[in-house]
User: Which sequence fits this backbone?
């Protein structure tokens, strides 16, 4: 289970984090800011695509496992949170956005763990609003990492800022949705 192709691909997302972060600590003599932006963007896109690919391969090769089901969302959250923190450090994303995104990930992960312990994990299963939030984040982050003109037409900074704020709104919305779904179980256990 630890060395299947899908699981190895999931691990690569975790090991990619110091590489993406490290790109921005390269000395100016090794790479210009534009080159660092480009390398970090390409790495993020490639590693983000492994999220889709590892799930596809796990099903196709019949290599699904409970460990893989656990590790996959953890790797995604690590990658997103690390990149959001890099964007805050580079002053390309607001710290408030980072607090919303990271806070939600912690809260919903804890909620899902608790709901699984009480046998009610289906009430907080992934919903379309959570998937939409993820898609918007996964477009906003590389736009903000690139931070320039794409094909001479798209100002990725402007689009990225708008998209990361939309992702923050969707993040709050999805958190409220999951909390509402869990509320009956929470009330039942509180009595």
Assistant:
């Amino acid at each position: 289970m630890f060395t299947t192709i899908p699981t190895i691909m999931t691990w690569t997302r975790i090991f990619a984090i110091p590489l993406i972060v490290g790109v921005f600590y390269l000395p100016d003599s090794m790479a210009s800011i534009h080159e660092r932006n480009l390398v970090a963007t390409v790495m993020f896109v490639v590693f983000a695509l492994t999220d889709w690919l590892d799930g596809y391969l796990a099903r196709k090769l019949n290599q699904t496992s409970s460990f893989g089901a656990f590790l996959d969302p953890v790797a995604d959250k690590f990658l997103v949170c690390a990149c959001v923190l890099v964007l805050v450090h580079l002053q390309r994303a607001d710290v408030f956005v980072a607090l919303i995104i990271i806070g939600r990930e912690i809260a919903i992960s804890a909620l899902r763990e608790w709901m699984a312990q009480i046998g009610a994990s289906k009430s907080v299963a992934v919903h379309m609003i959570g998937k939409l939030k993820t898609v918007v984040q996964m477009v906003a982050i590389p736009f903000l990492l690139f931070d320039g003109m794409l094909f001479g037409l798209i100002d990725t900074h402007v689009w990225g800022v708008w998209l990361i704020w939309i992702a923050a709104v969707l993040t709050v919305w999805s958190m409220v949705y999951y909390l509402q779904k869990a509320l009956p179980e929470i009330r039942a256990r509180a009595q």
